[in-house]
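Hello again, I could really use a second opinion on something today. I've been puzzling over a protein and I'd love to understand its fold better. I'm sending you its amino acid sequence along with the backbone structure tokens. It would help a lot if you went through both lines with me. I've dropped the whole record in just underneath, so have a look.
***
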Amino acid sequence: MGLKTWKKWTDWPLMMLSVMFLVAYSWEILARTHVTLCENVINAIWAAFVIDYVVSLWLADDRWRWFKRNLFALLTIALPMFRPLRLLRLLTVLHVLNRTSGMAVRGRITVYSFGAVTMLMYVGALAVYSVERGAAGSTITDFGTALWWSFVTVTTVGYGDVSPVTFQGKIIAVALMFAGIALIGIVTATLASWIVDQVNLEAGRREDAREKEVAKEAVQAAIATATTTATTETAQGKTEIELLRKEVRELTATVAGLREELERR
């Protein structure tokens, strides 16, 4: 079995496990019931992800190259809370992004980025709430506040009205800050790319219009030249015909004169 075949048969099951992981993790943090069951589900799913990683690495033709290209997968194993990001593969079914080649790339990157940041905000809020709700002096005591803090942290606004006091919470805050900076960079690059494409498109349209105008003028000039030449040739032809007619009349008169002279003799 090759790596492509393995991925073909495991992508959707792993995606469903990602959903189960997110549900179990959310239930454990928010509902705080059936904690042991949720932990068992999370550990079982995490083990399935580890098996998928190891098998994929074993089936890869170039293992070192595959390893370097899948450092994020390794991160999701080391930090299971980020594993729900695999759900973003569902976004590839949005065929509307494939209308043009340029938008296929920019659109997919934008969707992935916003989807990843949204998921990070939600998971980050869950994570910071789980470590902050019982800490002394914490201001993040409910999930709504955790979501608010996660949002202002990712958007790099940082009002400072609430902030984590635990070491784990600060680590989560750093991760969300980097995610926000990356989002701003991606949005800026995507917008700049779109503007450049629009400028190039408009320049191309103007160049095409100018070429068409030049071609039209060349055709009109050629038609005018041909018309002038034809008119000149027609006038010259008429002049030559008149000269020929004059010569014929003169020759006719000469012949008639010679005939009369011969008759008199």
